[in-house]
């Protein structure tokens, strides 16, 4: 499988509703960094209380 963003081989793949999308290591890392900084992830962390030590 090829990366969705470039010509490199995909290191990771996700599938939803029968559609597969692959990402090379570099683009996977880039997307993860974007998601880590997103407001949506911050809101999710608050909802599930990620920092809880119990």
Would you kindly provide a written description of the structure presented here, covering whatever features stand out?
The chain has a two-stranded antiparallel ribbon. It is an alpha+beta fold. Helices cover 41% and strands 19% of the residues. The chain has helices at residues 25-36, 39-48, and strands spanning 12-16, 19-23. It has one domain.
Strand numbers in spatial order across the main sheet: 1-2
Q: How confident is the prediction overall: mean pLDDT? A: 89
What is the terminal-to-terminal distance?
41 Å
What gross morphology would you assign?
A: elongated
Major beta-sheet overview: 2 strands, antiparallel
SSE order, as H and E? EEHH
Query: What is the number of beta strands?
Result: 2
Domain count:
1
Report the β-strand fraction as a percent range.
Answer: 15-25%
Output the number of helix runs.
2
Radius of gyration: 15 Å
Determine the structural class based on helices, strands and strand pairing: alpha+beta
Poorly predicted runs are: none
Helix content: 40-55%
């Amino acid at each position: 499988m090829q990366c969705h963003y470039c010509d490199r081989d995909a290191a990771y793949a996700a599938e939803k509703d029968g559609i597969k999308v692959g990402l090379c290591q570099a683009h996977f890392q880039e997307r993860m960094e974007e998601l880590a900084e997103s407001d949506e992830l911050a809101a999710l962390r608050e909802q599930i209380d990620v920092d809880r030590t119990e």
